[in-house]
Amino acid sequence: MFNFLNFSAFGLDISDRLIKVAQFIQNRNQLNLFTFGSHEVPPGIINKGEIEKAEELAEIIKKTLAETQPYPIKSKYAVCCLPESKCFIRLVKLPQMNPSEIAEAAGWEAEEQFPLKKEEMYLDWQILKPIEESDLKRQTKEESKKSSSTDILLVAASKNSVDSYLATFDKAGLVPVVLEPESIAIIRSLINQKKNLGAVMIIDLGQERTGFIIYKEPAIKFTSDIPISGNLLTKAVAKEFKVSFKEAEKIKIDCGLNKTKKNGRVIKAILPYLSQLAKKIDQSLAYYYSEHFDSLDKSRAVSKIILCGGGANLKGLSVFLSLQLKREVEIGNPCINFIKPQLKKLPSISHSKSLAYVTAFGLALRGIQNY
């Protein structure tokens, strides 16, 4: 039996045009999706990650929580993401020192690395796991000298941005137990931590933008985003067929990149944007290799590219990108770190739909892990 009184914190993913929420529940040794849902955010409430109408957003959040299926979310504790554009992540090396010294050094490094003054940011940092003994045995003398340093993951966010989100959550009656960058939640959702995949690149194709993440255990190495998005592709289809946005979305979903459908007009309309997407991916990989790749350490080479976000459902996209980039490209599995529900009382979710809930699932997983 489920203990429905022992609720975890839920995941709350807020973007400019959509709110998505999810909550997990622990059933003995199995993790199950308990409930989930979404709600559109009208234009003008959030603009490029900045909350402009907190009262209205708070009401939408409350409505979303009340309407999740099959159960409403009653917990007031939320794990929330911050817009990637308002966050800064860097991996830095510090000489080995005691924890109190690291805290001070992290502050100085943050001011050097991030475009904010110390008093303008909230800063957190984490010491990454030490080198394993097996790794030490393989080190050269030069590498051994480098291992005397400590790897620190710095994460900072604008105080103005964070404070606006906190004020909105307060109006919605929520207690945010964790605030974290979207990219960290995505990694938690898509990467099976029991398998060492080496370095991977994640392409998150959203409604309003596409995010790039390069991750190599145990830390994110690179993030960026571009304005190419699912909505942009739909608008291109709408222009080509002279139809409404809603009708264009249906055409895009039905045809995908199939040249035989609609006389190839869909792929003709969106191909310039997809070619630009492939070019930006290549540029991001080139930058990563210039900054992080060591020819002696093959594990730093990106082994595969993983697609997620609602835009990943575009038929033929993974094959197109694989041919363009000459790399393995696959569609991610947001359910990889929890067991799909077997009982009729728990909601099931299709793989295509789950791709849009990657961030919400990652946040909810943090909630079930006691933060």
From TrEMBL:
Domain of life, per lineage: Bacteria
Pfam entry (one): PilM_2
Signal peptide span: none
Residue ranges crossing the lipid bilayer per the database entry: none
InterPro entries linked: ATPase_NBD (IPR043129), FtsA/MreB (IPR050696), PilM (IPR005883)
Positions in coiled-coil regions: none
Gene3D superfamilies found in the cross-reference section: 3.30.1490.300, 3.30.420.40
CDD domains recorded: ASKHA_NBD_PilM (cd24049)
PANTHER family the UniProt entry points to: CELL DIVISION PROTEIN FTSA-RELATED (PTHR32432), ETHANOLAMINE UTILIZATION PROTEIN EUTJ (PTHR32432:SF3)
UniProt-recorded name of the protein: SHS2 domain-containing protein
Organism of derivation: candidate division Kazan bacterium
